[in-house]
C-alpha cells in the first residue's frame, strides 16, 4: 500500500512538473527521465542478475540512431538526402538507411536492434559460462568498438558530430513549447509503464530465478535450469529498455553523438544506479535522476571539479554504501543488529563468481 | 611487401599492448581485481618521463624507466592498501571503485600538467630506423625489446625467486597457499606493486610514439583488458600470444578494409567472442577442480 501511494505521488509530481518548470528545465528533466528508463534495465540486469553491463550505451545508441535516422529522413522528404550526407559527399541514400523512412519499421527497430545485439552477445557469452568481470570487460569493449565504428563511418552515421537538427517528431514540432510538453508526458508515461513491467518481472518467479542465479549460478544449474537463457533474457530486456530510452532521448535533446554512448557515457548510466541502489528499482530511477541533475549543476558551475566529484561518488558509494541510497536504511538496520548480537555468526555471503 | 609491413606494424602494436596489459595479467589474474586505474598508472609513468626530461636531458627516457616503475608501483600500493584490500570477493564493485579513482587521477593530471598534450623528446639514438625490406623505426624496436625484456624479467621472477613462487602459489590456490604459511596479504601487495609498476614502464614506452595527455591511459585500458581475457588470467604466455595476435589482427584488418581503422575494433571484438566459444577462459587455463 505504501508503495502504491509513493508511486502515485511521484506520478502526480512528474505530471505536474510542466506547471512549475520553465521549458528549459523541463527539457532537462525529460532528458534525465530517459536515463532513468535505462537505469531500470540496469537495475534488472545488474542488481537482480549480477551482470555488470558496461556497454549499455551501445543499446541506447542503437535505439537512438534508429529513431534519429527516421527523423532525418522524414525531414529531408522523399528522395532527398539528410543534410550531413551531402556535407560528407554522399550522393545516393545508403541501402542501410532506406527502410528507416517507414515509421513502423523505425519504431520496431528501436527495440529489435538492441535486443538482437544483446541476445547474440548474451547467448554466445553466457552459454560459455563467461561471467562476472569477464562479461563486464567484454561489454565495455563492445561500447568502445561501437563508438569507433560510428565515428569512422562518417557518411553513414554523421561521424563524430552524430545526428543533429531535428525539427519534427511524429507530427510534433520540436521547436514548439506545447509540443515539447506532449513529448515530456509521453516520456513520463513510458517510464511509468517500464517501471511497472520491470517490477512485475522482478517479482515474478522469473525474477526470483534471476536473483538465485546471481547468488549461486551453479546451484541453479544443478536444479535443472539453464542460467544462460535466464540471464540472456534479462540482458536483452535491459537492452530493449535502453533502446527505447535512446529513441526518446533523440527528440528531447535534439542530437545524438558517439559521445552520448561510449565507454564513459555507459559508465555514467551505471553510476546513477549504483548511487540510488542497484537492488531497488525506485532507487535506480531516483539515483539516475539525481546523478544527472548533479552533473548538470556541477558542470555548469564548476566544470573542472566535476570529475573529482564524480570520481569521489564512485569511491564513496562502493566503500560505504554498496547498496546505494535506497539500501542505507537496511544497512543501518544490519549495523544496529550486529551491535546488539556481537556473538552472532557472520552471514555467509557467497563470493561473487570470480570469472 | 604489404604483408611484411603489416606484420611489422602489428608486432609493434602488439608490443605496446603487451606492455600495457602485462601488469593487468597479474592484478586481474591473481587477485581477480579489475583495476580501471591501471590506465592512469600508465599515464603517470608517461608524465614521469616528462618531468624528468628537464632534469636529466636527452637520456630522460632511460632514467625514467626505473623511476616510472617505482612511481606506478607506489601508486598501486597506495590503492591496494587504502581501498582494494577491503574489496576482495567483490570484483565488480572494485571495477567501479577503481574507475572513480581513475577519473580523479585524470583530473589531477589535468590540474598539475594542464589539459593540452605534452611531448617527451626521444634520445637521439632512437631516431632513424633499420631496413629489413620495410623500414622499422628504432623507437618501435626499442619498445619491442622493452616488452620482451619485461616478460623475461617477470618469468624469471616467477620461476626463480622465492617471492615469485609464492605469487604463483597464491594465484593458483589462495586458500591452500594461506594454510601453507604464505602471507597472502603480503603477496597481494607485492603483486600490486609489480603490476602497477609495469604500467609505469608502459607509460614511458608510450612517450616514444606519441604525445602525453591526461587521457593517455584510458585509450589503452579496454584493449589491455581484452588481451588478458583472451590470454587467460595470470598467464604470461597467454598475454604474450594474445597481445601480438590482436596487434597483428588489428593491423591486417585495417589494411584489408577500405575504411579500415573503424572496422578493426569490431572485427577484433568478434574474433575474441568467437575465440571464447572454444576457450571460454582464455588461451591458457589454470587447471582446477573448482566449478567457477
Automatic annotation (TrEMBL), chain A:
It is a multi-pass membrane protein. The keyword Cell membrane applies. The chain crosses the membrane at residues 29-47, 54-73, 104-126, 133-152, 182-198, 228-249, 269-293, 305-322. One of its GO terms (molecular function) is branched-chain amino acid transmembrane transporter activity. It holds the Pfam family BPD_transp_2. The keyword Acetylation does not apply. Keywords: Cell membrane, Membrane, Transmembrane, Transmembrane helix. One of its GO terms (cellular component) is plasma membrane. It comes from Actinoplanes auranticolor. InterPro entries: ABC_transp_permease (IPR001851), ABC_transptr_urea_perm_UrtC (IPR017778), LivM-like (IPR043428). It is found in: Cell membrane. This is Urea ABC transporter permease subunit UrtC.
Automatic annotation (TrEMBL), chain B:
Belongs to the binding-protein-dependent transport system permease family. LivHM subfamily. It is found in: Cell membrane. One of its GO terms (cellular component) is plasma membrane. NCBIfam families: urea_trans_UrtB. The lineage of its organism: Bacteria, Bacillati, Actinomycetota, Actinomycetes, Micromonosporales. GO terms for molecular function: transmembrane transporter activity. Keywords: Amino-acid transport, Cell membrane, Membrane, Transmembrane, Transmembrane helix, Transport. This is Branched-chain amino acid ABC transporter permease. It is a multi-pass membrane protein. One of its GO terms (biological process) is amino acid transport. The chain crosses the membrane at residues 6-26, 59-79, 91-109, 141-158, 190-212, 224-249, 256-278.
Amino acid at each position: 500500500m505504501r508503495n502504491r501511494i509513493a508511486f502515485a505521488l511521484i506520478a502526480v509530481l512528474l505530471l505536474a512538473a510542466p506547471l512549475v518548470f520553465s521549458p528549459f528545465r523541463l527539457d532537462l528533466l525529460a532528458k534525465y527521465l530517459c536515463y532513468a528508463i535505462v537505469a531500470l534495465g540496469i537495475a534488472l540486469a545488474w542488481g537482480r542478475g549480477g551482470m555488470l553491463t558496461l556497454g549499455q550505451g551501445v543499446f541506447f545508441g542503437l535505439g537512438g540512431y534508429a529513431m534519429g535516422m527516421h527523423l532525418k529522413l522524414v525531414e529531408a522528404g522523399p528522395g532527398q538526402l539528410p543534410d550531413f550526407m551531402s556535407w560528407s559527399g554522399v550522393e545516393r541514400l545508403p541501402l542501410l538507411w532506406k527502410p528507416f523512412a517507414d515509421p513502423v519499421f523505425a519504431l520496431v527497430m528501436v527495440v529489435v536492434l538492441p535486443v538482437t545485439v544483446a541476445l547474440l552477445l548474451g547467448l554466445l557469452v553466457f552459454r560459455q559460462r563467461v561471467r562476472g568481470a569477464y562479461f563486464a570487460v567484454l561489454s565495455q569493449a563492445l561500447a568502445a568498438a561501437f563508438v569507433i565504428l560510428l565515428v569512422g563511418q562518417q557518411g553513414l552515421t554523421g561521424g563524430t558530430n552524430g545526428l543533429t537538427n531535428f525539427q519534427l517528431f511524429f507530427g510534433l514540432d520540436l521547436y514548439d513549447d506545447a509540443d515539447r510538453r506532449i513529448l515530456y508526458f509521453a516520456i513520463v508515461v513510458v517510464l511509468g509503464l517500464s517501471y511497472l513491467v520491470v517490477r512485475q518481472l522482478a517479482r515474478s518467479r522469473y525474477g526470483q530465478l534471476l536473483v538465485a542465479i546471481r547468488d549461486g549460478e551453479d546451484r541453479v544449474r544443478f536444479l535443472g535450469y539453464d542460467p544462460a537463457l535466464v540471464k540472456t533474457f534479462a540482458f536483452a530486456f535491459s537492452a530493449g529498455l535502453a533502446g527505447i530510452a535512446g529513441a526518446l532521448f533523440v527528440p528531447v535533446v535534439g542530437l545524438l553523438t558517439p559521445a552520448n554512448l561510449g565507454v564513459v557515457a555507459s559508465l555514467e548510466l551505471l553510476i546513477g544506479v549504483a548511487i540510488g541502489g542497484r537492488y531497488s528499482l525506485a532507487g535506480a530511477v531516483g539515483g539516475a535522476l539525481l546523478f544527472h541533475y548533479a552533473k548538470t549543476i556541477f558542470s555548469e558551475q564548476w566544470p573542472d571539479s566535476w570529475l573529482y566529484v564524480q570520481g569521489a561518488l564512485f569511491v564513496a558509494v562502493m566503500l560505504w554504501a554498496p547498496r546505494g541510497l535506497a539500501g542505507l536504511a537496511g544497512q543501518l538496520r544490519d549495523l544496529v543488529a550486529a551491535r546488539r548480537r556481537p556473538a552472532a555468526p557472520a552471514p555467509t555471503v557467497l563470493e561473487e563468481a570470480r570469472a | 611487401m604489404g604483408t611484411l609491413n603489416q606484420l611489422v606494424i602489428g608486432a609493434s602494436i602488439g608490443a605496446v599492448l603487451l606492455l600495457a596489459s602485462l601488469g593487468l595479467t597479474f592484478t586481474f589474474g591473481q587477485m581477480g581485481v579489475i583495476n580501471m586505474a591501471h590506465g592512469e598508472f600508465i599515464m603517470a609513468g608517461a608524465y614521469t618521463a616528462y618531468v624528468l626530461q628537464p632534469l636529466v636531458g636527452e637520456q630522460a627516457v632511460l632514467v625514467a624507466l626505473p623511476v616510472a616503475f617505482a612511481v606506478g608501483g607506489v601508486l598501486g600500493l597506495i590503492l591496494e592498501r587504502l581501498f582494494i584490500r577491503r574489496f576482495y570477493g567483490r570484483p565488480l564493485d572494485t571495477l567501479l571503485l577503481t574507475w572513480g579513482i581513475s577519473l580523479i587521477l585524470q583530473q589531477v593530471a589535468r590540474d598539475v600538467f594542464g589539459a593540452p598534450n605534452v611531448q617527451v623528446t626521444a634520445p637521439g639514438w632512437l631516431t632513424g630506423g633499420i631496413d629489413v625490406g620495410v623500414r622499422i623505426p628504432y623507437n618501435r624496436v626499442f619498445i619491442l625489446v622493452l616488452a620482451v625484456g619485461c616478460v623475461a624479467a617477470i618469468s624469471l621472477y616467477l620461476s626463480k625467486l622465492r617471492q615469485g613462487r609464492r605469487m604463483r602459489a597464491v594465484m593458483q590456490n589462495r586458500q591452500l597457499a594461506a594454510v601453507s604459511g604464505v602471507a597472502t596479504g603480503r603477496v597481494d601487495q607485492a603483486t600490486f606493486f609489480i603490476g602497477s609498476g609495469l604500467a609505469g614502464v608502459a607509460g614511458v614506452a608510450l612517450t616514444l610514439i606519441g604525445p602525453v595527455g591526461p587521457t593517455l591511459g584510458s585509450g589503452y585500458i579496454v584493449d589491455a583488458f581484452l588481451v588478458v581475457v583472451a590470454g587467460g588470467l595470470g598467464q604470461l604466455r597467454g598475454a604474450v600470444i594474445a597481445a601480438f595476435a590482436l596487434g597483428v589482427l588489428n593491423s591486417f584488418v585495417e589494411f584489408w578494409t577500405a575504411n579500415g581503422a573503424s572496422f578493426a575494433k569490431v572485427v577484433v571484438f568478434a574474433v575474441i567472442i568467437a575465440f571464447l566459444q572454444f576457450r571460454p577462459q582464455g588461451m591458457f587455463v589454470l587447471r582446477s577442480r573448482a566449478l567457477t
